[in-house]
Request: fold
Amino acid sequence: MNLNAKTQLQELFNNRITFNKTERKLYGHDIAAMPGIIKPFIGSTVPEAVVQPETEDELVNLVKLAAKYKVALTPRGKATSGYGCVLPMAKGIVVDFQRMKNLIKINPTDNTATVQPGIIWEKLDRELAKKGLTLRLYPTSYPGSTVGVWLAQGGAWIGSYESGTFSENVISARVVLPDATIKDFRGSELELVSDAEGTTGLISEITIKIMPLNELEITAVSFKKLNDLQKFLQTIIDENLPVWSVLFINPQMANLKNKSPLRSHGGNIKEKHIILPETYIATLTYRKKDSNEVNRNLLGLVSLNQGEILSDEIAKHEWENRFNIMLVKRISPSLVTAEFCIPLSALDDVLTEINKKVNQPIVKEGLVIKKGREGKPEVIILGFIPSDQRRFSYNLVFALTLTILKIAQKYGGRAYAAGVYFAKKAESVLGRERFARLKKFKLDKDPQNIMNPKKVFGNSRIDTIMSLAELIEPIIRPVGNSVITKIGERIVKSVKGIPEDIVWYAYTCSQCGYCVPECDQFYGRGWESQSPRGKWYWLREYIEGREKWSQYMVDAFLACTTCELCNIKCSVNLPIEPSWMKMRGHLIQEKNKMTIPPFEMMSEALQNQGDIWAGYRKDRDVWFPEDLKDKHYNLSKKTDVVYFAGCTASYVEHDIAMATVRLLDEAGVDFNYMGKAESCCGVPMLVAGKWDVFAENMKRNIKAINNIGGNTIVCSCPACDMMWRQVYPEWAKKLGIDYDIKVKHYSEILAEKIRNKEFVFPANNMAPVTVTWHDSCHIGRATGVYDAPREVIKAIPNVTLVEMDYNREEAHCCGSVLTLIKDPPIAAEVGKVRLDEAVEAGAEKLLALCPCCEFQFRVTKDKKQIPIDIVDLARFASSAIGYSFPDPDPEVQRQWAVFEAMIALMTPKGFADIMGSMWPELINSMPFKMGSMMLFMGKIPGMLNLMKPMFPVLFPILLPKMMPKVMDTMLNRVGKRIPMPDYMSEQMPEIMPKVMNNLMPHMIADVIPLVTQPMIDYLQSKAK
Ligand SMILES: Cc1cc2nc3c(=O)[nH]c(=O)nc-3n(C[C@H](O)[C@H](O)[C@H](O)COP(=O)(O)OP(=O)(O)OC[C@H]3O[C@@H](n4cnc5c(N)ncnc54)[C@H](O)[C@@H]3O)c2cc1C
Ligand code: SF4
Ligand code: SF4
Reply:
């Protein structure tokens, strides 16, 4: 792509375009691991740019630009297809539709919905459910793939028994054609877009059929013999049972599902292990209103075909796990996929012949379509052969897909999709007449072949290779069959220092993308590197030596907010967030990479006075209510229970700590406050990867509670709670420290008292109020405390609790702390998502209990002007009893002003600006008389410009020697830029030099280009 094209693209898309090499690489693949033997024939698939349009107009302009500069466009939904159809084969531009994801209209009268193509199935279904509607069919990639794009890709699955393929359920599609015109396709014309894999245009809007939402009933039936399963499936069709969806798996799939690891958290298993019989299992789903009719016949049909109805538990389990078809990847770690469509009548013949000819464990999932292409029942089979892409044998196993497809074709079947690998088979995939019509349309509208070239219509070297391989299939089959496939999770060795489990998980990740849409790191930023999926892919590239660490990728790992939403979304149960946590230690502690800069300031403040806000230790307890001191802040008294307030409640949002001790006191809890002996719980240092500082701090806290003699910590802050409850025990064990401390959150204590009728909120004359509850990640997903705060709220008179759309385990993150300190504008976008949900729920107040969530919400509310009150739960509950507290908002805004200015300072630009304000002092401080020499050079015209290439070498040597001499001036300039409170300014002479020492070695390379010209300008000005 030439420079003009790049410039115009940049103008068109602003911050919604990337030329970043690492990022582009992450948009150059799909879910399939391409066999090494094929890669050379495909060549590089790294695009030259990735754009993210938001409107149809932008698509039109993009197409015009692509036509003018003859640049290929590769449309992309979520890249969950595995046929190579999203690979940018001619490089060019990837058109990522993830921002075109609006729901345009739901029409309940004619049961249709109109959407932009990039909306995720799960999101759409959620909106439909609010109106008593649902989808007629959807792919099993429902949590991660997009609606409009299914038309381009073509397909079928859940619900297809009744509803057929997706294209049969589409009313119309608006498409930007390769000649930059827009066309509305309907009826038979839709064939020019559906299954065309984006080769004929960019879908910008689509209207689909939907249906009323009905409660479903599920029955699972087991068959020992395949032939019996086939007969059973035929009889339910013949008997016309009103069934909506029919899926089945083979015994090998059941076997591997039984062996796959269960979802766990902190080493504890979080789901029941359901053992499936290792047979053919069919799962039938039908509407509850039809259950009498279905059940009346089903029992007879099952026994007629030697089947056995399985327990409701198994049926429920199979249905609830219908999206996790890739789970078996956890024990392979790769899968070779073969997907094909056959007549139902050939099911037994095809699978039996495959079993005979392919000597590999093939796990299969199938679906039945009552009326297939020719009006006859069809079955689609998705077959996986477990393998390991890191070994050469993966190539050999991959070749067996040809054997499988050949057998399917022999019995009247066809490949499921053409894509890149099977473009030669497009005619059979689409049907001869339809293919001819499509080809003519393509030639007519896209003579330059800019729209997704080399897909469907072929024309790549891979066509020749695949044709050749097909010819010699009988010769290569025995080689593929000779591979010995090992099954089981095999976490063996660390590579390049990456911990061994993370190496295995990187290959295990199926790239399904279920973790992407709800990851706040991702939806705040929108680029693949910011998602768990992108990071796993990048790690593979790093492990295989094609990527190196850059600050961009270090930051990508550090910026995860630790919300843990990905852990519950992952289709293969990967411990994603704990893996990123491990990576933090690996990167910062072991590899000495730069952490997010404000953490350096927090770290020094913490080591100085024990808190991250740079307050004095002596002031930690100033908030404690005078009248409670004798009772609850009396360290001469021994109590088991000790209240730990944490830094933010102690120094910024005092109302949280004050209200918590009021509540505990009112509820009759005998406790003591830890007071000045308390230090930061350490969570900021843990997530910063500064693990030595974390460990020292943890030891201080454990010593403090041992000194007081307590054995139970009560927290108000969820992060402190998580440290004491989960992280300290783990680290104490690692470091050989005795640890026998129980932990409770105050909401748990209060809820228990309310449940036992030991505590009752008095009647109050508060005006009735509607509130909603924000589940903080660190007490929700991390600890599982969902009910206690709700019990407290419900016990307060005159309060109505409404739930947000995403609540409990699904709750969205507030966007603190890592987003707030890393990218403040993005934190406001992430926070807005949550606050908008609260407003939409109809709440006047959003209640929360995490000081950091509350801080972030207050900042976001202010920035985005969102009409909702942010109130701490303890404050709300204590106010209902009659207590009042200072408003934390002014202090939050004051502290945020300091923090925001500090964040801006600790960037290359921030440091360059400060340096730009102190050239005389900097030049004076240069060692080896370099300052005078520089001033002299400034007098010789052109000399300093000649010296420019030397500065990147000189500065890193000079700067450490200059810094101590200019520190006073620097502190003075920093003081002018940052509105620091006195206690912070007083500590700066101690803190700042250490911060500079830690940051400068990492940042200097980015600072030098920014200061070179200003310095030359200054020196030349002195010469005049
Ligand atoms: C776990 C899992 C389960 C799956 N289950 C099913 C299933 O049940 N049924 C099924 O059919 N498939 C299934 N798939 C495959 C895949 O999810 C589907 O093909 C899905 O429709 C792809 O959606 P996507 O958003 O990821 O599209 P992508 O993979 O990004 O794109 C698919 C095709 O559409 C083109 N395209 C993208 N956007 C546009 C646009 N706006 N206009 C025109 N063309 C465009 C692309 O170039 C590409 O050719 C599954 C995949 C996974 C990982
Ligand atoms: S923990 Fe949250 S922010 Fe981090 S990767 Fe998972 S979903 Fe994204
Ligand atoms: S991390 Fe899990 S959910 Fe995300 S892409 Fe990988 S397998 Fe899918």
